[in-house]
Structure formats: structure tokens, C-alpha cells
Amino acid sequence: MADNSNFIDYVKICCRSGEGGAGSAHFFRDKFTSTGGPDGGDGGRGGHIIARGSSQMWTLLHLKYKKHVIATKGNPGGSSRSSGAEGKDIILEVPLGTIIKNAETGEVEHEITEDGQTVIVTAGGHGGKGNWHYKSPTNQIPTYTSPAGMGRREWKIFELKVLADVGLVGFPNAGKSTLLSVLSAAKPKIADYPFTTLVPNLGMISYRNNRSFVMADIPGIIEDAHKGKGLGHRFLRHIERNATLLYMVPADSDNIAKEYHILLNELKQYNEELLDKPHILAITKADILDEELKELLKEELPKDVPTIFISSVAQQGITELKDMLWASINDDGLS
């Protein structure tokens, strides 16, 4: 994965759509007709600002320095009822999982979740109608047209929430990056100190019969992350778009159940709906435990969540974990 400087999940852009072209007040003329009827065409629509989803992108980096995007205006109408050309649309490619907000109100206006999906972020002005529209039995020579629509100038916020089948949730050093590196071809930065992972890492996980699912290593949460402590809000928003959550607590934690409930509380305080997502609890670094210790720990673990002991390094419980995740993603009644 790219380093932290290349992962941009928030940009604010001034979107200026094009104004519509003017309608024409032309009258038909040729060498045989000097006072023909109205034949002024319509003006062209102004250019839109459009967002289009791309499965090949995972960051908003390419938009970081686009502080202003400006579409062109429509061309005026011509004679013989010919319409003016539309203004050129500006198309902004965005990763799947991008939401677009009104910068003034904070209202979410669009969500991009599919490859090729397009939405009009800021609409261009409509073209003015030509005078031929206004001919009537009582007005054979209308000299007026309807005015063209003005373009809009709007500030928009583009915010990326990583879209994945499974999101890994845990404190720093819970073993999330190690698990992702073992399960997929992703190569996240791994070291034994907090906040090694500063951006979400995505990995494609191969499963049986050529099936696969996407896993996101969400940067480590800390207690009070929901208050913005650490990089809390930036981390937490990426959890919202994951279908299933895998909570990870290391076997050498002082109190596994307590740590799990702290994680639950952080998600609840940020967005209570996150607790409704299917979830599994993995006790990581389980290679340090013998069977007797595992049995003792099981007595202390929460009873309302499917639980598994795993070791990424020793490859313990990995196949079983993938089975549990697949069942959870596909609603097989696991949780």
C-alpha cells in the first residue's frame, strides 16, 4: 500500500457549473422570404460537475489540489431551430465509498458505491428557449426568448469511507496488519509500536472455489477515539462501510473482555448503528497459549459474540476464521 502521504480521504472543492446558452430570437430569411416566421433555436445546457465511481482508485489524492473545478457554458441557439452545443462536463473520478456533502450544511447529497456510477454534483444551467417556442395565432413574430439558467458555484466536501466486506477493529498492536498480510497479498507496514498503521489498508482474501472478499485493516482505535482523541474520527468513519466487523484482542491483554467492551463502546459512542453489524471476536497471538489456558480464557469471554483463537504467525485458526467471516458476510446466521 502507499504511504500515509498518498492516502487522502477528505477534500473540499469549489464546483462551478456552466451557465446555459442564450436562446435565439432569429427569423427565417432566404432570397424568397424576407419576413419569415421565428426559427431561433434553444441555447445549450451549461456543463455539469459530475462524480463517477472507479474501482481502480482507493484515495482522493488526485483531487487534493483541485480547489476549483469549472465547467464551460452552453453555446447560444442558432437559426433554423438549431440548438447550441452543451457546455463541457467536468468528470471527477472517485473511489468507491466516497460520499459528497454540501460544505455549508453538512448534508450528505450523494454516495458512490458502484464502479461506473455517476452523479451530478453541481448541475449546469439550462439553455434559454428560442423564439420559435413562442409563436402563436395572436403573436406571429415573437421577438423574445426565455432566459438561460445561471451556472452554480457550490463548495462540496468529498469524503472517503473505505468500502470492504470485513473491517478489522482493535487497539494498536492487536495484530490487524499481520493478519491482513498473512491472508492477502497486501503488504502493510508492521512494527511493534502504536499507530504503525496510519491509513486503512485493503487486501483481497482468497476463499474456497475461487471466491474472495475484501478486508480492510482500519488504523488502531484508542480509548476516547470517538471524542477525536488520537486520530479517532478519521479512523472510525472507515468502519461505517464494512459489512462485517472482526474485533481483535491479543491473548496477552490484561483483560480480554474489558478490552472488547471498550472497543464496542468507542463504536457505540461514534455511531450506535455500528453495533448492529455482524461481528466476530478473534483472540490473536494465540500461539502463546496452551489448551488449558484457552479453556480458562473461554470462561471469561463474552457469550454474545462468535469467538475464535488465532495466530497469524503460527497459522493457527486461519482457515476456520475465513469460514466464519464468509458465513457472516453472506448472512449464514453466524451472528
UniProtKB/TrEMBL annotation:
Residue sites binding Mg(2+) per the record: 177, 197
Residues making up the signal peptide according to the UniProt record: none
Cofactor(s) essential for the protein: Mg(2+)
Annotated GTP binding sites: 170-177, 195-199, 217-220, 284-287, 311-313
GO biological process, one term: ribosome biogenesis
Span of domain OBG-type G: 164-330
Family matches, as InterPro entries: G_OBG, GTP-bd, GTP-bd_Obg/CgtA, GTP1_OBG_dom, GTP1_OBG_dom_sf, OBG_GTPase, P-loop_NTPase
Family per record: Belongs to the TRAFAC class OBG-HflX-like GTPase superfamily. OBG GTPase family.
Protein name in UniProt: GTPase Obg
Organism expressing this protein natively: Aureispira anguillae
Gene name for this UniProt entry: obg
